[in-house]
What we know:
By secondary structure, this protein is mainly alpha-helical. It is 39% helix and 5% strand.
Amino acid sequence: MKWPADGKKLIVQYALESDISIAIERNFSPYAEKEKFSNEIIPEEPIKTLDNLFKKTLTKPHIYYLPLSDEEVQEKKNKLNLKKN
Length: 85
């Protein structure tokens, strides 16, 4: 995951308390082993933003929406015609 959306890749690592205390005693820096993690293959997911997922109005504040499909439009027209009759 990237954080912020246009920033660098965020990698979460977990450690046991014993590992942390050993690292502190040895004055270990997590950045010292940068090459160790740079060789890992992590699939990049495309960044999902509202602008990518939805259409929006030009006015501000923007209103995000999804347009109806042709089938949905036809179904709504049919329902309106049934109500008129």
